[in-house]
């Protein structure tokens, strides 16, 4: 019924005018550092997200690492992170030598729970990493208060939250540092890429040293003050991203409108509960529309079979994260800890609808909701299938 929307609605390299933008980079003699495309993209993206400084990087994972390193996070420190997130959050912390300490998530929003995070603060805690899961802003007012009370740094993982806002400010500018991803599934993409945002000049300069081979902003090219790495973005990727800046706000507005409408339709179906938003949220980026599935309202139809049926109806849906502390690389890690009950439940019952579905028109949203109702109506028969 809905097949084909994945290709049609994905952010595509065939955006009008993009080939010309790439030709201009080819004709330029700066394909990397000091490229005008990189400089303009950093400035435009930072400005749009209410930040003073931006550093375009090779991906969002290294942006998280550079942010932590710029803040001085090191061995012996602890960083509080959610376990309902991509593995990069824990991995970036571990690569600084610090320990990720997992806190549980809010059962209504699926974001890091400020109260559970507060319970896990210790004398070794140096930072908190709230993740705007699916593009839904975390409770930043609560994390800002925690940071002030305990003298902690805030690194926002905004990898999925392009264009999201909280209390009228764009996410990525609400902590000490904000990090975004431009990997191929994201609302804004160059296939790969990332960016680090901050309003603090000192953090910006230290992050520059980390991402640009240990060089300072104004020093000689072969003077290296720290053992930095090369996390730079190419001018070609920057041109692709810069070209999308003119559409970012329209795309975000469309996802917001469709996401709200579809959630209203899905929440009316027994057994489907969509993630809520905090009162301060002024825009959800809807990289993912996340909901939980209760098979008791679908004649006991297993989640795996429900997903098969959804995809057969043309709704591109996936089951989502596993708890990060259950991943293989965490098994021998100092960050391993007891399971978190809400995280375990959401990982068991949670399902994602991808952002490209939300770029369609109202009839597509109605079609998605109808697919859910159709599956529910035939759930007993679907369960009996071999």
Please, could you describe this protein's structure?
By secondary structure, the chain is of the alpha/beta class. The protein folds into 2 domains: 12-243, Aspartate Aminotransferase, domain 2, CATH 3.40.640.10; 247-384, Aspartate Aminotransferase, domain 1, CATH 3.90.1150. The chain is built from 13 helices and 14 strands. The chain has helices at residues 5-9, 18-27, 36-48, 60-70, 88-95, 114-119, 140-150, 201-211, 235-267, 303-312, 341-349, 362-377, 379-384; strands at 53-57, 78-82, 99-103, 125-128, 153-157, 165-166, 169-170, 177-181, 194-198, 272-274, 281-283, 288-293, 317-318, 350-354. Strands 1-9-8-5-4-2-3 form a 7-stranded mixed β-sheet, sandwiched between helices. The protein has a 4-stranded antiparallel β-sheet with strand order 10-12-14-13. Helix 7 links the parallel strand 4 and strand 5.
In short:
The protein has 386 residues and is α/β, with parallel strands linked by helices. It contains 13 helices and 14 strands. Strands 1-9-8-5-4-2-3 form a 7-stranded mixed sheet, with helices on both faces.
List keywords for this structure.
386 residues, alpha/beta, Aspartate Aminotransferase, domain 2, Aspartate Aminotransferase, domain 1, 2 domains, 14 strands, globular
How far is it from the N-terminal to the C-terminal residue, by CA? 23 Å
Could you spell the SSE succession in H and E letters?
HHHEHEHEHEHEEEEEHHEEEHEHEHH
What is the residue-averaged pLDDT?
A: 93
Write out the CATH superfamily name of the largest domain. Type I PLP-dependent aspartate aminotransferase-like (Major domain)
Proportion of helical residues:
25-40%
Radius of gyration, in Å, reads: 21 Å
Kindly report the CATH topology of the largest domain.
Aspartate Aminotransferase, domain 2
Tally of distinct domains: 2
The total of helices stands at: 13
The order of strands across the largest sheet is 1-9-8-5-4-2-3
The largest sheet is:
7 strands, mixed
Looking at the overall shape, the CATH architecture of the largest domain is 3-Layer(aba) Sandwich
The percentage of residues in β strands lies in 5-15%
Going by helix content, strand content and strand pairing, the class is: alpha/beta
Unreliable runs, pLDDT <50, ≥5 residues?
A: 1-13
Would you count the extended β strands for me?
14
Instruction: Look at the structure and give the CATH class of the largest domain.
Output: Alpha Beta
